[in-house]
Amino acid sequence: MSMLIEYIIFSISIIYLLVIILFTIGWFLLPAPKETEAFEAIPVSIVIACRNEEKNISTLLNSLLNQNYPKNKTEIIVVDDHSSDNTVKIIRKYTTKHNFIKLFCLDDNKTGKKESISLGIANSQSDIITTTDADCTTGPLWLNTMMNYYAKHQPKMLCGPVTFNNSKNLFSKLQNLEFLSLIGSGAGAIGIHKAIMNNGANLLFEKTLYESCNTKNEFASGDDMFLLIHAKSFSKKSVHFIKSRKAVIYTKPAQKFREFINQRIRWTSKSKAYRDFDIVITALIVTFINLLLVTSFVIGLFNAEFLVIALFIFLIKSFADLLILIPTTAFFKQTYLIFLFPVLQIIYPFYIVFTVILGLTGKFVWKNRLYSQT
Predict the structure, then answer these.
(1) With contact defined as beta carbons under 8 Å apart, do 191 and 142 qualify?
(2) Quick check: 44 and 23 in contact, CB under 8 A?
(3) Which residues pair with 372 in a beta bridge?
(4) How far is CA 197 from CA 55, 85, 225, in A?
(5) pLDDT reported for residue 294
(6) β 203-206/157-159 pair status
(7) In this predicted structure, what is the pLDDT of residue 267?
(8) From CA 279, how far away is CA 270, in angstroms rounded?
(9) How far apart are CA 186 and CA 168, in angstroms?
(10) The CATH number of domain 31-169+195-253 is 3.30.870.10
């Protein structure tokens, strides 16, 4: 093996380690908000896009009705994306009982989450928008905690913590552990003012930010990330993360492997449109170290020297990943998931390389629709 190859492998591994160390530092730099501080309630609109969510929408709406935030300051807007089940019928039962819950339906010539969110925001009456997903649930203090933080700090965008519920089997627990690593890394990046990701399942932003953002592109989703990039254009400190358990949103893991892969391909497919330096560099570093690990292992099956290289990369990457996972799982009170870390570390490089390739060149199915973004 040439010295140049060894130098490249060593350099990428160390760079990855340093990046995760910075994210870990950022995680600890995030302030713990003081939710007990009194503040004047601000009008807020909660926008939810849904399609065929008859099994989930009642749970979400009930959790939103249970919020301790003033109802006269709250507007809940649900936009239906041509559901073929009983979703609309269920929502209408809520709208007849509560005048602050409103239902809108996409026109026949429009489809997708992006169009749904756009319609919901266009019809909102508040200057502050929060978004979540139809398969999520919240605790009773979620909205009050988010709005309390906004009232005090007034960021352009506030990202909230998200985790899985119902992680009962091995597949869902592995998903949860990987998802927590993404949440922790994203939060840590915000902590050092280098925001690289958010999650539309728990997001707050100013309506004017959305209205000034160009979301007209060919991607079926991803407005949350394009909005984050737009927020950063005002200031690196325009994006905040709220590190409070009271602000946690709970979502569901993918039930089937194909659903999981399609979800990850969808996430990756829009990455080629990103022009933000922090996002692009981080994505390249993560992709390269996983690609190096997979390549070294495969070559190592025929050349033992490369197995040593694969082991070196694996150990460096594992040490780095644990740095961010330990405090993140502790925050969510899910440290029991760490015992699955070795399994995830073995599987992750192979699946991430696979989904990156498909995300950049392939198709995916989302909400029973086939998308192609090549």
Answers:
(1) no
(2) no
(3) 363
(4) 29, 32, 6
(5) 94
(6) antiparallel
(7) 74
(8) 12
(9) 25
(10) no
H/E stretch holding 101 reads strand 101-105
CA distance 163 to 165: 7
- Strands 203-206 and 128-133 come out as antiparallel
Q: Are 136 and 142 in contact (CB under 8 A)?
A: no
Q: What percent of the chain shows pLDDT beyond 70?
A: 92
Say which range, 2-11, 59-68, 237-246, has the weakest mean pLDDT: 2-11
Q: What are the structure tokens assigned to 371, written together?
A: 């998308």
Helix or strand holding residue 83 (H, E): none
Contacts of 359 (CB under 8 A, 6+ apart): 264, 265, 266, 267, 268, 269, 271
Distance (Å, rounded) from C-alpha 231 to C-alpha 238? 6
The whole-angstrom separation of Cα 23 and Cα 278 is 12
> For residue 203, what are the CA distances in angstroms to 22, 143, 155, 160, 254?
23, 11, 12, 6, 21
Tokens read off for 32? 């713990």
